[in-house]
Amino acid sequence: MQQHNVRIFVGFDPKEVVAYHVLVQSIIEKSSIPVEFSPIALSNLGGIFTRERNALQSTEFSFSRFLAPYLSDYRGWSLFMDCDMLMRADIAELWALRDDRYAIMCVKHDYQPKIDTKFLGQTQTKYEKKNWSSFILFNNDECRALTPDYVNTATGLQLHQFKWLENEDLIGELPVTWNYLVNEYDYREDAKNIHFTDGGPYFEEYKNDDYAEEWFAARERLLFVQPRA
Is residue 156 assigned to a domain? Predict the structure, then answer.
């Protein structure tokens, strides 16, 4: 059965509410195909997500993101995105890259973070496959191992390093431009989806980072109301 809607789960954290809404705005205004959004918000997941918060978590959705296939009834494809992103391209371009040979698809970053702390003084943890899970296309039927019980009990590395897959051949690779890390990578005009991984422009110390002006412009469009004639 053909899936017409792009089902998008976006991490939601009360510490950076504006990030969620600006990202959604940036996707809507550039998309040429139908999109639907679901915030991964802990307040919406009562009885489903029950694990206690880990001290190393920088956001509330660090682990709950892996519920996306379950919340999709393990049907079709879905996309998870961190909220500290900005879409600069038509998401139809990404949707066209789906490949049923894979259980998930992501950007396979290979880097060491340049800083030890990020927004709000959070520790910048360093581990294999760092930031792979910040932008994931899920082939949901192939991700049935991600039950609520597993997501609630697996270790952080089991989840973020995709240990729940039978093998790594099931991880498809997306072009780096779909999860382009601000400050970690040099400015690229052709970056399709920007990731303010160290901290978004809504935090004072990051307001002058690459692509920040574009983020603020998107926020202004989000606040627009047509005045009465």
Answer: yes
**Residue in 32, 41, 11, 5 with CA at minimum distance from that of residue 23:** 11
- Strands (E) across the chain are located at 6-11, 35-40, 77-81, 85-87, 104-106, 135-139, 171-173, 180-181, 193-195
Is 143 within the bounds of a domain?
A: yes
| pTM for this entry | 0.90
* Contact (Cβ atoms closer than 8 angstroms) between residue 18 and residue 5: no
* Number of Cα atoms under 13 Å in the Cβ half of residue 8: 28
What range does the domain containing 135 cover?
A: 6-223
- Could you tell me if 9 and 65 are in contact, meaning their C-beta atoms sit under 8 angstroms apart? yes
Q: What pLDDT digit, counting tens, does each position of 183-207 carry?
A: 999 999 999 999 999 899 999 999 9
Q: At 174, which CATH number? A: 3.90.550.10
Give the number of domains in the chain. Answer: 1
Phi, psi for residue 123 in degrees, rounded to 5: -65, 135
Question: How far apart (Å, rounded) are the C-alpha atoms in residues 225 and 129?
Answer: 42
Greatest alpha-carbon span in the chain:
61
